Amino acid sequence: MAPGVGFGVSTDWYTRLEKGYIKGVSDEVLSAVARALLLDDAETAHLFHLARAAKPARTPRRRTPARLPESLQQLLDAMTGAAAFIRNGRLDIIATNALGRALYAPVLDQPAWKANIARFNFLDERAADFFPDYPGSMDTTDALLRTEAGRDPYSRDLTELVGELATRSEDFRTRWGAHNVRNHNTGLKHFNHPVVGVIDLAYNSLDVRSTGDDHFVLNGYTAAPGSEADEKLRMLASWSATDSPERSEKHGSRTEERRGVDELSDV
Question: For residue 187, is it within any domain?
Answer without folding.
Answer: yes
